[in-house]
Design goal:
The complex is a heterodimer of chains A (638) and B (555). Chain A is an all-alpha fold. Chain A has 26 helices and two strands. Chain A has helices at residues 6-25, 29-53, 83-106, 113-132, 136-154, 161-192, 197-203, 209-226, 234-238, 244-253, 258-265, 267-270, 274-295, 301-321, 325-352, 365-368, 370-384, 390-405, 407-432, 450-453, 466-481, 495-500, 515-540, 552-555, 560-602, 604-635; strands spanning 60-69, 74-81. In chain A, a hairpin with a 4-residue loop joins strand 1 and strand 2 (74-81). The N and C termini of chain A lie far apart (59 Å). Chain B is mainly alpha-helical. Chain B has one domain (8-475). Chain B contains 21 helices and two strands. A two-stranded antiparallel sheet of chain B has the order 1-2. In chain B, strand 1 and strand 2 form a beta hairpin. In chain B, helix 3 runs antiparallel to helix 10, helix 10 packs parallel to helix 12 and helix 12 (302-322) packs across helix 16. The chains are: A mainly alpha (638), B mainly alpha (555). The interface between A and B is large, with 87 and 109 residues.
């Protein structure tokens, strides 16, 4: 377990070697080195996990060095190994390795190939620090680190103005939320005097209710930014400007789940504040529902997935808010599998379609990309929660928690599950079924001729090479079997629940509901999942134009982002311009100039100074001062 | 106070000044920059040795040299270094050689190098002087080389900019001079001796009213020099018109003279006035943070942008000083050093851009990232450190300042956090406009950093990360002196620190449990209230009832 420092060290080394030798390494070596670095990180995560299974305590802290020390306030750099951080680090490094490998082929011929892998390695390093840090400040280091890497990677194709803006927007929105995280830490410093998690958990029961509530609420504000909750979700849709592997890794599987991780990490504190837990549930369910509705009307293959991610994150927060922390983590892990799968297969589609992302211009791809179609289908089933795919079990656990909390939350959650299945079905149908809309008009409608048409110079959809297929197929298997992590049939089969138990606050008793309830709820989940999917199939497999079902309100994601843009971004630019153009020169400097004029009018000497004598007189002063100082120095004993 | 045999500090201060004077009269244009660099490096190495020999854990002055200068007035050639001035000295020692390497091109003659050396010596002298009169001399001496650097090698409107800078700061100095003389006279009337020794002057007994007046006199010079809102209007013009060397000297080094003066003199001489008037400085600091950031956002001239971002960042330093928390003050001193490093790096890179594209108008630049990836990489590192990314030096300073301020002056810290958001806005926006997008024809093929440029920017970049990861190496040396200073202010205001405080550090101990349970719901939102009475004893005497409200918040 002493080897835990190697987990972040490998990707860091990878990043450093790419900084210095990246341009010499070129393609594809740079990519493979990066993949190897993350792969080694995964290997050592497994090693540490195995060692931890035989460890006598539920927490192991590897102290690295004293980071900040002002005498009265001290922060250590240390890594905390416990079930929660291990779960996180295992799936983060595992999924990252797959996506790194996929990217080697995907980013082929990109001019900044080594730089891409540099950022990816840096990202993984930061993400590992985020989950392994043994105090809030170290978590914050990783938190900001992933944010910056996300900024770099969203604006990776920075010559595209939209990509550059999207990167900046992601960073700024996160920054706004980070103020919450910082304030939360300030309160902890003030009242607990240590940012170590162990210290916080020990002190929390002795703090007043309002302090606890403020700490948790402010941390949640930070989490809302990072995990794109209402109303701070617009940036995630824009983040799709980044290369698709980035969307898969950062904006689906790992970084955006950091907010959920933080809240689960703080669960011993959160459990003390039921009011804030309710707030989290409400925001979570609202986000789940609103984002799912937004996803029903998107035309961009990645934007559907982006809103879907937001929606799933909302579910995770419902889990957090209702005290079903293990369920939230379970959903997070399975979501990482199937959402990475969906993004990577859509990446294959985009790759095959020569950077076309508009669903309305796809169709019938199942014929030319059969494996990708199956992979995407698996992803659809998994996210929809059709048994026995992974999503059924994990979303089921979350909805069970919601059922115990309030029937309203549960109903919205259930309905949203149906919507989820519907919008994913719509996406699948538009991309893979129906008529091929990328064919020339003359042969439109003849499915058989798809192959012939693929010779056309413009569009030539094809399966990617096996290098891109391996990660996709692996993820498809995981999306299918992920449920095995935590099956509800017997308590001995709830591996994840049992493993996580020491690291999180105890779940409320209602989570241990009767077998009958579980069966009924589970069946309802399945019915909604299958029903939503079937509706989508019947509507969208035949047509691709149904404006009546694609509301403008949803297309614009409830206008929240646009409103924010007008209300905040534009008005504050205006404010800045006025400040710069009027207040600064007229008011503040105006006062100075006014005073100066007054003085000038009175003092003849100063008028002289101002009219050209300054130079000479300054020289004289300088000479005098210098001579004085040198004499002083000589007398002083040189 | 420790005495050493070799007069390190005297040599560090005098060498550049004498070197500068000699250089001014020796017409060796080609050799000048090498000679100047040599002198500057020797001083720098000596300063480095001082840092290595500096005793960690000692709060007092070290390497003290004290000789009589003008004995009838009690003026001494008196130098010493403590945790507060140590890294400011190192900052001067590091940055001047870099300036000399970076800007010593063909257009610069021996006078240029001479002025820079004199400026370096004056800066050393200001930070190291333990004699108030000596400080004043050096403080004023910095003005002149800076003025001539702007006049001689500046932009189009240089004379106007230089004049405004000169007069404005001179105006502040007049108050400093008057206040200094009054202080010495009062001290004389009490003790019968004339002295400018700052350790002795700190024992002058002053009525509250005279403390306030003198505090304002001293501060006038310092807030203008720093600058602190609203006394900043000389700076945008001066920064943008000055040559790279001038901008760096003004923003990186001379700005710290102001904040250093506040720390060293205001807090030492007038602890009660400093404490009572702190809300004014805190408020100005916070306004500066927000105001500077807002105005920076719409600047088109890169150097003006740095001027306003400096206003914003120095606002953080100001609140770190006047929050009277050891955490915040440690952060403030660290941040002074950080700001020096970051601003220097920023201006150096802007200088490189100017050299290549002949413009630093952000709206005319575009696509630099593609054309010059290494240069852009350096710029983004500096920008991220400026906006306080964890892992870089900027974060440590900002975090300590804000968390320390939060403990005692909650709402100031909350508003100041706005600066954290806004700094991301204006810096990333500027970066996007100048470095992203497609490059325009004119600068699609510009040269990336040369080897020489990489070499002189490298130490700054390394420091950005080193301090971000191992700040304790510096904080260990800084904190004893800071703790002493904070203690001095507390004593003067009858706030006594409870020794048992350390016990509550380990949570879970019996002591802290009891204390935690004392907290109640209403305390959270009352910044002035003694929220942390269980952390620090709040004893105040007799008529200081008003103070009592605040005592809990000050440590």
């Amino acid at each position: 377990m002493k080897l835990v420092f190697l987990i972040p060290a490998f990707p860091l080394l990878g990043a450093l070697s790419l900084i210095f030798f990246g341009r010499k390494l070129k393609e594809p070596l740079a990519g493979y080195i990066a993949t190897l670095a993350v792969g080694m990180s995964f290997v050592f995560s497994v090693v540490v996990w195995l060692a931890f299974l035989g460890y006598h305590s539920s927490v192991f802290v590897e102290h690295l060095f004293v980071w900040i020390n002002t005498g009265s306030f001290k922060v250590d750099a240390g890594l905390r190994v416990d079930p929660l951080s291990l779960t996180m680090v295992l799936f983060v490094t595992g999924v990252s390795t797959l996506i790194h490998f996929y990217s080697v082929e995907y980013m082929h011929k990109d001019i900044d190939f080594p730089k891409f892998f540099l950022y990816l390695n840096l990202f993984v390093t930061s993400m590992i620090i985020l989950v392994l840090g043994n105090n809030m400040l170290l978590t914050f280091v990783g938190w900001e680190g992933v944010g910056v890497c996300s900024y770099f990677l969203i604006s990776f194709w920075h010559e595209r103005p939209s990509a550059a803006s999207a990167g900046k927007k992601a960073m700024i929105v996160n920054r706004i939320a980070d103020v919450g995280f910082l304030l939360s830490m300030f309160l902890v410093i003030h009242y607990v005097h240590s940012l170590n998690y162990s210290a916080i958990f020990a002190a929390a029961p002795h703090l007043s209710k309002s302090v606890v509530a403020a700490i948790v609420m402010l941390a949640f504000v930070g989490a809302m930014g990072k995990s794109a909750q209402v109303p701070l979700y617009g940036w995630l849709a824009d983040a799709m400007e980044g290369p698709t592997p980035v969307s898969a890794l950062i904006h689906a599987a790992t970084m955006v789940t950091a907010g959920v991780y933080l809240m689960v990490r703080l669960s011993p504190v959160l459990a003390l504040s039921p009011d804030i837990a309710h707030v989290i549930t409400i925001i979570g369910i609202l986000t789940a529902f609103m984002a799912a509705m937004a996803a029903t009307a998107q035309d961009d293959i990645k934007k559907v997935l982006a809103y879907s991610t937001v929606s799933q994150l909302g579910y995770m927060f419902v889990g957090v808010g209702t005290g079903a922390y293990a369920a939230a983590i379970f959903l997070m892990v399975t979501h990482a599998f199937y959402k990475a799968l969906l993004f990577l297969s859509s990446g294959s589609v985009i790759h095959g379609m020569h950077d076309e992302q508009n669903l309305k211009k796809m169709g019938a791809l199942r014929i030319v990309m059969p494996i990708t179609a199956v992979a995407f289908f698996t992803g659809w089933m998994a996210i929809a929660g059709v048994p026995p795919f992974a999503g059924f079990w994990s979303k089921g656990d979350v909805l069970l928690g919601a059922f115990g909390e309030s029937w309203l939350v549960w109903i919205i959650g259930l309905a949203t599950a149906g919507v989820t299945s519907y919008y994913m079905g719509r996406e699948y149908c538009l991309a893979f079924l129906g008529k091929a809309r990328w064919m020339p008009a003359t042969v439109k409608g003849k499915k058989k001729s798809a192959k012939a048409v693929s010779h056309s110079p413009h569009i030539d959809p094809h399966e990617p090479s096996y290098k891109m297929m391996i990660p996709v197929v692996t993820l498809a298997v995981l999306a299918l079997l992920g449920g095995l992590l935590n099956l509800p049939f017997a308590s001995s089969l709830k591996f994840l629940d049992n493993f996580l138990k020491p690291a999180i606050a105890a779940s409320p008793s209602y989570l241990h509901s009767s077998a009958l309830t579980q069966i009924v709820l589970g069946s309802l989940d399945a019915i909604f999942a299958i029903g939503g999917g079937l509706i989508a199939y019947f509507i969208w497999s035949k047509t691709f134009e149904r404006p009546a079902l694609e509301f403008t309100l949803f297309k614009n994601a409830w206008y929240i982002d646009k409103t924010g843009d007008v209300a905040i971004a534009r008005s504050s630019t205006k404010l800045a311009e006025v400040t710069d153009g009027v207040i600064e020169p007229k008011v503040i400097d105006g006062a100075v100039v006014g005073v100066t004029k007054l003085v000038l009018a009175v003092g003849i000497l100063i008028r002289k100074l101002a009219s050209g004598f300054v130079r000479r007189e300054a020289l004289v002063i300088a000479g005098g001062l210098v001579i004085l100082i040198i004499i002083g120095g000589l007398r002083g004993g040189l | 106070m420790t005495q050493t045999s070799f007069p390190f500090l005297t040599v560090i201060v005098l060498l550049p000044i004498i070197g500068g004077v000699l250089l001014a009269f020796v017409p060796v244009d080609k050799l000048a920059k090498y000679l100047a660099l040599g002198v500057s490096v020797v001083s720098g190495v000596l300063a480095l040795i001082v840092m290595l020999l500096f005793k960690t854990g000692d709060a007092g002055y070290q390497f003290v040299t004290n000789h009589s200068w003008v004995s009838s007035l009690g003026i001494g050639w008196h130098f010493g270094v403590d945790g507060i001035s140590l890294f400011l000295m190192e900052m001067v020692a590091l940055i001047f050689p870099i300036i000399l390497i970076a800007t010593g091109d063909k257009t610069k003659n021996n006078t240029y190098s001479a002025w820079l050396l004199i400026l370096e010596g004056a800066c050393f002298g200001s930070f190291l002087s333990m004699d108030l009169f000596g400080f004043f001399l050096f403080f004023e001496l910095t003005l002149i080389p800076a003025y001539f650097l702007i006049i001689g090698w500046g932009g189009k409107e240089r004379s106007k900019a230089a004049l405004k800078f000169f007069l404005y700061t001179l105006f502040g100095s007049a108050f400093l001079f008057a206040a200094m003389v009054i202080l010495v006279v009062i001290h004389h009337s009490q003790t019968g001796v004339f002295t400018f020794d700052i350790t002795k002057l700190a024992h002058t007994k002053l009525s509250y009213a005279s403390q306030v007046l003198l505090f304002l006199g001293f501060s006038a010079a310092f807030v203008i020099k720093t600058p602190i809102f609203p006394f900043h209007t000389w700076s945008p013009k001066a920064y943008s018109e000055a040559p790279t060397s001038g901008s760096i000297s003004l923003a990186s080094i001379m700005a710290k003279l102001g904040t250093y003066g506040l720390l060293r003199f205001d807090l030492n001489f007038f602890p009660q006035a400093s404490y009572r008037l702190a809300p004014i400085l805190l408020t100005l600091g916070v306004i500066g943070i927000i105001y500077g950031a807002i105005v920076a956002a719409v600047q088109r001239d890169f150097k003006r942008l740095v001027a306003f971002s400096s206003l914003s960042h120095l606002g953080f330093v100001a609140i770190g000083i006047f929050a009277f928390s050891t955490i915040a003050m440690n952060g403030a001193i660290l941040q002074m050093f950080n700001h020096g490093i970051l601003t220097a790096a920023m201006f150096l890179i802007i200088g490189m851009i100017l050299e290549r594209t002949k413009t630093i108008d952000i709206s005319k630049l575009s696509g630099l990232q593609k054309a010059a990836p290494v240069l852009s990489g350096a710029m983004i590192v500096v920008i991220l450190a400026s906006l306080g990314l964890p892992g870089t030096n900027g974060f440590i300073g900002e975090f300590l300042i804000l968390s320390g301020t939060f403990i005692g002056h909650r709402w100031w810290a909350v508003v100041a956090l706005g600066g954290v958001i806004l700094s991301a806005v204006y810096l990333l926006w500027a970066y996007q406009r100048a470095f992203h997008r497609k490059a325009e024809e004119s600068h699609s093929v510009i040269k990336d950093m040369t080897m020489k440029e990489k070499l002189y920017i490298a130490p700054l970049i390394i420091l950005i990360f080193f301090i971000g990861i191992f700040p304790s190496t510096m904080l260990n040396k800084i904190s004893p002196s800071v703790n002493l200073l904070v203690h001095h202010v507390q004593q003067a205001n009858h706030i006594v620190k409870q020794p048992a405080y350390a016990a509550s550090y380990k949570s879970g101990s019996a002591a802290s449990k009891n204390k935690h349970s004392n907290l109640n719901a209403t305390e959270l939102y009352r910044p002035g209230a003694p929220t942390s009475r269980w952390l620090y004893a709040a004893k105040s005497t007799s008529n200081e009832t008003n103070l009592q409200m605040k005592t809990g918040s000050v440590k």
